Amino acid sequence: MSDTAADSPWAPLAARVFRALWIAQLVSNIGSWMQTVGAQWLLVGDSAALVTLVQTASSLPVVLLALPSGVVADRFDRRAVLVTAQFAMLAVSGALAALAFLDALSPTALLLLTFLLGCGTALMGPAWQAIQPELVERERLGQAAALGAVNMNLARAVGPALGGAVVAAAGAGWVFAFNAASYLGIAAVLLLWRRPAAAAVPPAADEGLPAALYAGRRYVWNAPGVRRILLRTLLFIPGGAALWALLPLTASRSLGLGSGGYGLLLGAVGIGAVGGAFLLPRARRLLGANGTLAAGALVFAGVLAVLATVHVPWLVALALLPAGLAWIAVLSTLNAAVQTRLPGWVRARGLAVYLLVFQGGQALAAPLWGAVADRLGLSACLLIAGGAMLLSAASVRRWPLRDAEGINPTLSDHWPAPPLVFEPGEADGPVLVSVVYRVPTDRQAEFTDRMHRVARSRRRTGALSWGLYQDGHDPERFVENYLVSSWAEHQAQHHVRLTATDRRFEEEARALLTPGTAPEVTHAFDTTAGPAVRP
Fold first, then answer.
1. Which of the chain's ends, N or C, has fewer CB atoms near its CB within 10 Å?
2. Range of the domain at 262
3. Going by DSSP bridges, is the β-strand pair 431-438/520-525 parallel, antiparallel, or unpaired?
4. 38 and 147 together in one domain
5. Which helix (H) or strand (E) holds 478?
C-alpha cells in the first residue's frame, strides 16, 4: 500500500475481515436506527420524559453491565462473546416485532425490551472494541475508529429516514423485524472468522470476576492518559446527549413534522458525519486532537442554539449537517486515543470503562433534559445544553488530552525469572518485592522523580501498595518495595501485563544508577497468610 493510500481514511477497509464486519455492522446499525425511530415515534404523543426514556433504556445497561462485560471479553474468546450477543439481540428484536404485529406492545413492554437490547449492546461493546487491534495495524486504529463512527452515522443517514417511511407506511412492527434480521450478518462473518490461536483465549482466563474487575479499575486509576480521556468524554457527552434525546420533540413540536420528517432530520446528521470523514484527517492535522475536541464542542453548541430558536425545517436540517461532522470528529478522536493506550490484557476492561462513561453519560443526561424540557420548555432546555457545550470547549485548555506518542502498549516480557530456592504455589502470598538501587547524590532528585512513573506502572500491573525508601545509614542506597496479592498475580506481572512503555520507564530510572551497579531484586512471602510448601 502506498503512503497516500495508507493515510486514506478508508485504508482499514483493505483488511478483509474488517471490511466484511464493517459492511455487516452497517446493515445492523441501519436496523438499530430504524428501530429507534419506531420506538420513539410510538411514544411521541406522551410526555417528553417518556420519549427520552427510550435513549435511557438503550444506554442504561452499559452503566450496569459495561465492567462485567469487559471482564467477560478479557477472559473468554471475544468472537464467541460477540456471536452470543448477536443471537440474544435477534431474539429480543423478534419479540418486539411479534408484540407490535399483535398490537400488544405497551410503553412498559417497549421500554423493557429496549432495555434488554441495550444489555446485548453492553455485552458486545467491549469485545467489539477490543478486537479492532486484531483486525487492523495499530497505526490505523485512528482511521478504524473514524470508520466506525462513519458506519454509525451512515446508518443514521439511511436508517431513520427509512424507518420513518416504514413506520408511516406499514407500522412499527416491520422496523423491529428488519432489526432482528440485521443481526444475522454480523453473526455470519464472526462465525467464518478464524482468529489466531494466540488470541482465541485471552491470558488470565482463570481470574475470578471480583479480581478481574478490581484489576481493570486499578489499571485505569493508575493510567493518567486514560483518565484524561474519560474526563474529556464526560465533559462532552451530557450536552451532546441533548440533541439525540430532544430531536424527536423538536421535529414534532417545534417543526410540526411527522415520523418521516424526523427520520430526515436524523439523516442530515448522518450525512454530515459521513462528509466529515473526508475532512477529519485534514482537520486533525490543522487543529490537533485538542483543537478538534474544542472545535467539535463549539459547533455542537451552535447547532443546539439553532434548534432552540429556528422553526424552519430546511434550515434546521442544514444546521444538523455540521452536528454530524462535530460528533464524528470528537468521538473518533476519543475512541482512537483510548484504543492506542490500552494493552491487550486489560483492553476490554479499559474500553468498558470508556463505554460506561460514554453511554452512561447519555443514559443519565437524557431523562434530565426531558425533565428540564417539561419544566422550562424545549427552547430553554436546548439553550442550556448549548451552554454546557461551550463550557466543554473552554475546558480543553485546562484539561487537554495527553500526548500518546510515547505510549507503546505492546507486551514486554523483560523481567528475568526470580532465582528462588523453592517453588511457591499460585495462591502463596502476599508477595513483597524489594528492589535495591544505588544512586549518586547528584542524581537522586531526578531518580526519585522518574520513579513516580515506575510506581504507576507497578500499580497498574498488580501492586497493592508501593514505596521508595532512602537508607538512613547509606544515603546512596534506595529500596523500592511493592506488595502483590499472590504469586500468581506477580507471575502475571512478569509474563502478561508489562508493556514496552513500562520497560522504558524502568530503563529511564535505572540510567541514573551509579555506574557499574545493577538493581538487586528479592521476593519475600508472608508466612502468616497461610501454609505454603517450603524446603
1. C
2. 8-193+208-395
3. antiparallel
4. yes
5. strand 477-484
